[in-house]
């Protein structure tokens, strides 16, 4: 039975407040990263000690997983 492929990436609305990056690995697992991860042969990895990483979901399209790293978008704030 073929696994159903989800949307391209997890939704930033579901990210923890500390997550600054998201990426998908070769197997279709998506992760939230506190610091910018580096690309390993099969996955994204953060080599900073005590940096938070959290599984964001599974079954994502991993066709272009090496290009999946995205930084959290800046939010606009209005000053009155």
Give average pLDDT, whole number: 87
Category from helices, strands and their pairing: mainly beta
Instruction: Classify the beta-strand content into a percent band.
Output: 15-25%
Strands ordered across the widest β-sheet: 5-2-1-6
Ranges where pLDDT stays below 50 over 5 or more residues in a row are none
Series of secondary-structure elements, N-terminal to C-terminal? EEEEEE
Work out the radius of gyration. Answer: 14 Å
- Determine the fraction of residues in helical runs and give it as a percent range: under 10%
**DSSP strand count:** 6
How many helices does DSSP assign?
Answer: 0
Core attributes:
single chain; 80 residues; mainly beta; 4-stranded antiparallel β-sheet; two-stranded antiparallel ribbon; 6 strands; 0% helix; 24% strand
Characterize the structure shown.
- The protein contains no helices and 6 strands.
- The chain is mostly beta strands and 80 residues long.
- It starts with 20 loop residues before the first strand and ends in a 9-residue tail after the last strand.
């Amino acid at each position: 039975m073929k696994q159903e492929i989800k949307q391209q990436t997890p939704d930033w609305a579901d990210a923890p407040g500390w997550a600054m990056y998201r990426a998908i690995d070769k197997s279709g697992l998506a992760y939230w990263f506190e610091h910018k991860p580096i690309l390993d042969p099969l996955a994204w990895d953060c080599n900073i000690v005590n940096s938070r990483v959290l599984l964001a979901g599974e079954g994502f399209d991993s066709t272009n997983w090496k290009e999946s790293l995205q930084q959290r978008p800046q939010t606009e704030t209005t000053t009155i």
